[in-house]
Amino acid sequence: MAANCKLRDLILNSQVPLVLDQFPLEWECFEGSLHDWCKRFDQEASSFPDFELMASADSSTPQWERKRTKATKLSMQQFLREYGVLEEQHTHWAAYQYKGANVVPPSCRKGIDFSSFGFPDVGDDFRFWLGSEEANTPCHYDTYGVNIVVQVHGSKSWLLFPPETPLQSTRIPYEESSVYCLENFYAPDPAKMQSYEHLGRQAYHCNLQAGEVLIVPRNWWHYAEAMSTSLSVNYWVPLKVDMDLVLDEFLVMQIVESFVKGESDQIKQYLLNPNQVGNLTTKPSDLYAQFEQAVQNLESSQNTRKLYDTDYISQADWKTLLNGINHTVRPLQVMPHEEYKRLLSANSKRFRKAASPPETTPISSTWELLVSSMCAPRVIAEMKREFFRRLGKSNSL
After folding, report:
1. Using the 8-state DSSP alphabet, how is residue 32 labeled?
2. Where does the JmjC domain start and stop, copy by copy (predicted)?
């Protein structure tokens, strides 16, 4: 237990991403091969799971979730047959990702336990990510939590940037607790390569292999792409500091919903991530009631989940802790600039081969800029400060 507490302290106080090499997990559900896991899934599932498909050639902008084909029903074994090894001239990638434990058969999640990392109260609050080669998540940062990513099968490339990196933030598409950026790391535009290369001064990278674990500190930007058929499980560690950020997210939600109320389905599907389209409040007063409840919860520190502190030990103590950990833990370093340029150059070839027409936008560029400007993190932070000032609080509750 003491060793687990040390690892927990290391995770919560790290200021850079960490990789845990060949971490000794004993999760029963992943004994055997990926084929074995998929076969059990098919045997126990009541219906075929819904995969999303994305055209590889659709690369003029990040591969936003709104551009993907949804509800493509495949058995897990069919997924492996059709997408397990993509041919050179493949047209799509496929993924079953961001899936909660409640939609995965019991034997396929049996034994998953994050207590070995020092977090025994996870329960079923983790997510599954299964995808073929090239399946990716556009670059973004999570507004809440420290992210623990366990690579179970295959490999995945992670490109990461610290919070202060000058990426172009956007809340279009809007997804609660995710701030995206406009940079397209799947297929960088060769004409804009100079601006991408400038970001290399702050770029971190790893190819996460099966049996390895990645720790993503809070608010770090990250772009993740499967290098082969990949299965991973992740858990966001809830933090006390996140309670304050709940209000930021409610302010963003109010702004975005004010732009989509009464608009066409086409505009809603463009402005909102697909998982948000069906979650709109029925009227503004409902949203304000939720905001007021969030303020009251924050004021009373009311929360049913266990929340963790961060940054409670010095960097000198952190380094001493790192040297005393029994497992091999690698703090990532800024990647060599030539290596970063090679990664960009390889990915930019996808941009040149794009054959599909550019995505049509149902709103004007001015409208889109206005939404992104009003929802920019620094603007939201200033709105919250003004709210607290009028509430009679010096900063936050």
Report:
1. S
2. 93-252
Angle, vertex CA 328, rays to CA 322 and CA 332, nearest 5: 70
**DSSP H or E stretch at residue 348:** helix 337-352
Q: Is there a contact between 231 and 130 (Cβ–Cβ < 8 Å)?
A: yes
Looking at 63-67, 121-125, 285-289, 347-351, which range is the least confident one? 285-289
Backbone angles phi, psi at 168, to 5 degrees: -85, 95
Q: Is 207 helix (H, G, I), strand (E, B) or coil?
A: strand
Q: pTM for this one?
A: 0.93
Tell whether the model's pLDDT for residue 217 goes beyond 60: yes
Predicted pLDDT of residue 388:
85
- What gap in Å lies between CA 249 and CA 217, rounded to an integer? 19
First to last CA, the chain: 34
Residue 132: C-alpha distances to residues 55, 108, 216, 321 (Å): 12, 19, 22, 37
Please list, in sequence order, all residues whose beta carbon lies within 8 angstroms of the beta carbon of residue 35, skipping any fewer than 6 positions away: 77, 80
pLDDT given for residue 353 in this prediction: 54
Tokens at 63, concatenated? 């591969």
Phi, psi at residue 126, to the nearest 5°?
-135, 170
Average pLDDT in the chain: 91
Enumerate helices (H) and strands (E) in the chain, giving the number of each.
Answer: 12, 15
Crossing angle of helices 377-391/242-260, nearest 10°? 110
The pLDDT, as a whole number, for residue 89 is 66
**Distance between CA atoms of residues 375 and 178, nearest Å:** 12
Percent of the chain with pLDDT over 70: 93
Residues constituting the chain: 397
- Which secondary structure element, helix H or strand E, spans residue 331, and what is its range? strand 329-331
158 φ, ψ to 5°? -120, 120
Whether residue 153 contacts residue 210, with contact meaning beta carbons closer than 8 Å, is answered with: yes
Question: Which DSSP letter does residue 78 get?
Answer: H
